[in-house]
Amino acid sequence: MPADRAPSVLITGIHSEHGFALSHRFRREGWFVIGCDQGTTTGRNARVHITADLTNEADCHHAAVRASALGNGIDCVVNCSDVRLDGPVDEFGSRAWDVMMDVNAKSVFLMATAAMPFLEELHGSIVAIAPGPMGSGSPEHAVYDASRAAVIALMTSLTSELAARDIHVHLVLPEEEGRALTADEIADRVWSVTGIDEAGHSLSFAHAH
C-alpha cells in the first residue's frame, strides 16, 4: 500500500444503525469510507455515496467499479444490509420470502463477487454481519432464520474458496451468549478482524491524515 494512500472500505446499508456505527469507526481510524445503498444522500461518516440496488447484479458491479475508482482500490467490503419480516410461515408468501432472502443473503453474494477482483489486488477482506440474533426456532421467524443460515453457509464456504486468492473472509454474529450486541459492539468486532494487516500492524491512519 502506498504511504500516501488511506485504505478504503465499502459499507452497504450505510444508512442503517449498523452502517452508521461502522462508518464512524472506520472514519475515525482514517479510512476512506464509501457508503452504498438505495438512498441518494451521503451518510454522515462517509466520504462519498453510491446509490445501488444491492439485489441487482448490474448495480453491484457498477458499485464495485465506482468504489474502486473513488477509493483508489477497495481494501474491505462490509455487508450490513438487513430486513426482517416476521409472520406465520404458512401465511408468508413467496414475495416476502424473496424480499428477505434477496436483501439479507443475495446482496452479500452479489457484492462479494463484484468486488473480488479489486479485493484480490489489495489482499482485502469481505465481512458480512449475519442477520440476527437468531429466532432460535421461535414462532414466526422461520424465513428470517433461513436468510441468516444462508449468509453463514456462504461466508463459511467463501473463507476456504477465496484463501487461494488472498482475500480474507469474515463473518460477524450480532449476538453473544444470547444477548444482542449493540451497533457499536458490532463495529468493534468488524474492526478487530479487518483493521489489522497480515503482519499484525494496525491499518489505522487516524494520526497520519
Q: What attributes does this structure have?
A:
6-stranded parallel beta sheet, 209 residues, two-stranded antiparallel ribbon, Rossmann fold
Write a structural description.
This protein is of the alpha/beta class. It has one domain (8-194): Rossmann fold, CATH 3.40.50. It contains 6 helices and 8 strands; from the N terminus they run βαββαβααβαβββα. The protein has helices spanning 17-28, 57-71, 89-92, 94-122, 142-161, 183-194; strands at residues 8-12, 32-37, 48-51, 76-79, 125-129, 168-172, 175-176, 179-180. The protein has a 6-stranded parallel sheet with strand order 3-2-1-4-5-6, sandwiched between helices. It has a two-stranded antiparallel sheet with strand order 7-8. α1 links the parallel β1 (8-12) and β2 (32-37). The longest helix has 29 residues, at 94-122. The model has no long low-confidence stretch (mean pLDDT 88).
CATH architecture, by name, is 3-Layer(aba) Sandwich
Task: Assign the CATH superfamily.
Answer: NAD(P)-binding Rossmann-like Domain
Major sheet description: 6 strands, parallel
* CATH fold title: Rossmann fold
Lateral arrangement of strands in the main beta sheet: 3-2-1-4-5-6
Percentage of β-strand residues:
15-25%
Write down the overall mean pLDDT: 88
Question: What is the domain total for the residues?
Answer: 1
Overall spatial form: globular
N- to C-terminal separation? 15 Å
The residue ranges in which pLDDT falls below 50 over 5 or more consecutive positions are none
CATH class: Alpha Beta
The helix/strand class is: alpha/beta
